[in-house]
Amino acid sequence: MNQPRHSINLILVEDDEGHAELLKMNIKAGYQGGEILHFPDGAGVMDFLSSHSTSLCGKYIILLDINMPGLDGMQLLKQLRSNAIFRQIPVLMFTTSENEKEVAQCYSSGCNLYLAKPADYQTMVKLIQSLTNLLVSTRLPDISLG
Amino acid sequence: MDRFNVLLIEDDDVDAESAERELTKFPYLRPPDRVTLDILRATTFEKGLSAALTDKNIDIILLDLNLPDGRGLELIERLNRAGIRAPIVVLTGQDDQETMGLDSVRMGAQDYVCKSRIEGGNLSRCIRYAVERHQLTKRLRDQARRLSETNEDLESFVYITSHDLRSPLLNLHGFSTELANSLDRIQSIIAPKIDVFPADEKQSLADELNERVPQSLQFIQRSAEKMDQLTTAVLQLSRLNRAALESEQIDTDQLVRQCLDGLERQIRAADAEVIVEPLPQITADRATITHVFANILDNAVKYLHTERPGRIVVNASTRPEGTVFCIRDNGRGITEQDRHKVFEIFRRAANAQTVAGDGMGMPFVRNIIKRHNGEIWFESSPNEGTAFYFTIGECIEHEPA
User: Fold this and answer.
1) pLDDT tops 50 at residue A110
2) B263-317: per-residue pLDDT in tens?
3) Are the beta carbons of A73 and A67 closer than 8 angstroms?
4) pLDDT at B151
5) In this structure, are residues B244 and B400 in contact, taking their beta carbons and an 8 Å threshold?
6) Which of A128, B91, B203, B287 is surrounded by the most beta carbons within 10 Å?
7) What average pLDDT does chain B have?
């Protein structure tokens, strides 16, 4: 296991247990950051983010599946982007669909990167790496809020 | 007792009286009971139109084309545009019956009758047939609509099913790969320490780890891959079927040459001669019609005979049903048993084992031709060759069925 090079954590939002497990197994090897937190739906993520809102800055990347029951990925993305604090968290979206319109909608709703399932895990690791590089390079010193 | 409602749009009182007389003398009969005839008279087009719009129970409109506030075929057009659904029978004058009459029917009237020829039950008979024809047309339209709805449901079902199958398939594939990796890890731990086990156990362990487990995994992985291929293919087909078509004038000669350019390598490799005779222009959806030609040409090249120089001819002939395109090859041909498989999805011929393909092309080609309101068929002799024929209709269904 690699020594973590940075302390950025991954938040994985995926309703299918099998997909989540596969993702964790396959990117763990290449991922040199902190923890991989798994949430099976959008509601849990919002709760988590709200209770950690003071320490979010530059510390998380969200991996988001679009097709989920309840609060689906697209709606969650919009909620994130309309929140002053959460909107700064980079989001990588993925789904089994390859609908061009949907992809365009993801980008215009504010996701940073998009990948089709089944994911080429190596590509995913590289994309996550590019997002973490971005975070680390633009990271502001921790400012305590209120 | 049923009522039969007639709307008579006629300004001339004499003509109107004579029509009413004829109608009451031979009222519309629906065996075995008679019906009560109700004649509503309008003396101008506007009054007639307004009556037709307010009274939804009008069974037939008798329309004189020579009215004070409007004349000629545009009256029919105006009734159509107003959404009037009742059948129309046009009352023509002596001089203009053949021209006006026929044109009226072309514009949507059910029939026409000359005013001087309405006696002897002519008018009633004309009306009866007009109404029956109208009802038949309505039934056909309803059936077509129901069919189209069923088609839509089916398409939806196919799409959703194949789409939703991809999720579990991903797991199947992913975890069988993971199992293979786990096996490797187990083997690397056990291998150096294998001699710890007594001889028979050592053999058993070797059998399991080196043969049984890897083999089982391989079967699972291959099946998962096959399932993935099938669902992807079905999804693609479904997606393509739902796309909208556009019309444009296409230079077919140029289109065919384009397709052949794309097949240049294969044509050279097969040492085949391709002859393209002059082809007429067509109005069609460029992308899909290109696909039709490309697919059939590709097959023609692929299924050439290995033991003789290949020859493919593309031509068009004018037949009563329209232009018929033909792509003929002197290749392997299609056997009697395989004939029904040609347009069936995922079915491929026995003599096609050496040829790459997914069994998706021809069903899709046929769907495209159908959406162009054309027909596609083929003739073939095993070992002699195959000829595919298709027509492209005059009006295309732009939206999927």
Assistant:
1) yes
2) 999 898 888 999 999 999 999 999 889 989 999 999 999 888 878 889 999 999 9
3) yes
4) 83
5) yes
6) B91
7) 87
Give how far the C-alpha of residue B329 lies from the chain's centroid of Cα atoms, to the nearest Å: 27
Residue A18: closest C-alpha in chain B: B171
Task: State whether residue B376 is helix, strand or coil.
Answer: strand
Does the pLDDT of residue A145 top 50, yes or no? no
Residue to test with chain B: of A25, A101, A124, most B Cβ within 10 A: A25
Residue A146: the pLDDT is 40
User: How crowded is residue B376: how many other Cβ atoms within 10 Å of its Cβ?
Assistant: 22
* Chain B (148-187) residues lying within 8 Å, Cβ to Cβ, of chain A: 163, 166-168, 170-171, 173-175, 178
Closest by CA to B176, choosing from B211, B212, B225, B210, is B225
Report the share of chain B in percent with pLDDT over 90: 46
Taking a contact as any Cβ pair under 8 Å apart, which residues of chain A between 96 and 135 contact chain B?
96-97, 117-118
Backbone angles phi, psi at B389, to 5 degrees: -120, 140
Q: Identify whether the C-beta of residue A65 lies closer than 8 Å to the C-beta of residue A95.
A: yes
What residue of B is the nearest CA neighbor of A26? B178
Amino acid at B75: L
Structure confidence by residue, pLDDT tens digits, B205-241: 999 999 999 999 999 999 998 888 888 888 877 777 7
Cβ neighbours of A117 in B, within 8 Å: 166, 170
Q: How far is A69 from chain B (nearest CA, A)?
A: 13
DSSP class of residue B207?
I
Q: Does B244 touch chain A (CB under 8 A)?
A: no
Which neighbouring-strand residues pair with B317?
A: B324
